[in-house]
Amino acid sequence: MKRVAILGAGFIASVHMEAWRKIEGAEVCAFFEVRPEKAREFQEKYHLPHYDSFRTLLEREVVDIVDICLPTFLHREYTEMAANAGKHVFCEKPIALTVEDALAMKDICTRNGVYLMVGHVLRFWGEYVKAKELLEGGACGKVLFVEAFRLAVTPVWSVGGWILDPRLSGGASLDLHIHDLDYVNWLLGQPKEVFARGLRSEKGSLDHITTQIQYDSGALATVQGGWMMQGDFPFTCGFRILGDEGVLEWSFRAGVNIEEREQVSPLVLYRKGEKKQEIVVQSEDPYLAELRYFLGCVEKDTPPARGTAEEATLALRVALSAQRSAEEGSPLTL
């Protein structure tokens, strides 16, 4: 039985907690949270030992895995503390706010002989995984172009509004947009050039962005992301993939903040000379899937092959290049 400590008690920490409760071979033994009101809510719901000092938690609890669900600007600090204590680290995306921090996180985990996995959950999301499998099987022929999008209203769940401060979160152009940047990297390989345009919030954060990417393979991608949608606009995401023999598309709406992610929307495949094919993907919760995968890596002493620090750092490089491109108004070579 592997013992897990969750750092944080916000929305994504609750998502992770619900997942861990369903995974055999793991138990959450304690959680860390400095905000008394959030700690109280989490403790009342899950009845776990609470610590407002991570160092004290490490001293008093037997822990194998640290699950970091803290704001992005804290990722490096707490990854370093966990790694130095010999704990494996699962860290929510984005890996960090800077490439320097991301590389440091990977380095310290490597030096301490512990695994680091980053929660790029689309690599475990049923329809995204199935689409990659179909493409690898030649369903669309040679992939020429990928369009991906992720749109939401302005989030209100973060304590103190940290998510809306670009100095702490990177803004939507990093925190939200990076999901799909990582996914198109997974499909298309090494990005070559980035060009982006975007809109800024009242606080000056780049919170709606369209990024065009050219890949070494010659394939192109356009990725749109942002949380400037208005009213009751539902959380909306999806993709459209063009190949020289077919088109694969999928779109999905999931309430305000992915709380209705269990809904099923079929993939649709269009091929030359054939009727369209609707493919329904039955899959488990992707957050559960990624945490179970990481547990398996720890149990088998096998480095993660999905959600790696290298993949997360590449996605971060693309996101930061997109921000810079939008600021400068010109394309950037990676």
Itemize the secondary structure elements and their pairings.
Layout: E1 2-7, H1 11-20, E2 26-32, H2 36-46, E3 50-51, H3 54-60, E4 65-68, H4 75-84, E5 88-92, H5 99-111, E6 116-119, H6 126-136, E7 143-153, H7 166-169, H8 172-175, H9 178-188, E8 191-200, E9 206-215, E10 220-229, E11 236-243, E12 246-253, E13 267-271, E14 277-279, H10 286-300, H11 309-328, E15 332-333
Parallel strand pairs: 1-2, 1-4, 2-3, 4-5, 5-6, 7-10
Antiparallel strand pairs: 7-11, 8-9, 8-15, 9-10, 11-12, 12-13, 13-14
User: How large, in whole angstroms, is the Cα Rg?
Assistant: 20 Å
Q: What's the helix count?
A: 11
* CATH architecture annotation name of the largest domain: 2-Layer Sandwich
Contiguous low-pLDDT stretches (5 residues minimum) are none
CATH secondary-structure class of the largest domain: Alpha Beta
The oligomeric state of the chains shown is single chain
CA distance, first residue to last residue = 43 Å
The CATH superfamily of the largest domain is identified as Dihydrodipicolinate Reductase, domain 2
Describe the strand arrangement of the main beta sheet, using strand numbers.
14-13-12-11-7-10-9-8-15
How much helicity do the residues have? 25-40%
Named CATH topology of the largest domain? Dihydrodipicolinate Reductase, domain 2
Major β-sheet annotation: 9 strands, mixed
Helix/strand/pairing category: alpha/beta
Number of strands: 15
The SSE order reads EHEHEHEHEHEHEHHHEEEEEEEHHE
Compute the average pLDDT.
95
Tally of separate domains: 2
* Anisotropy-based shape: globular
Which band does the percent of strand residues land in?
25-35%
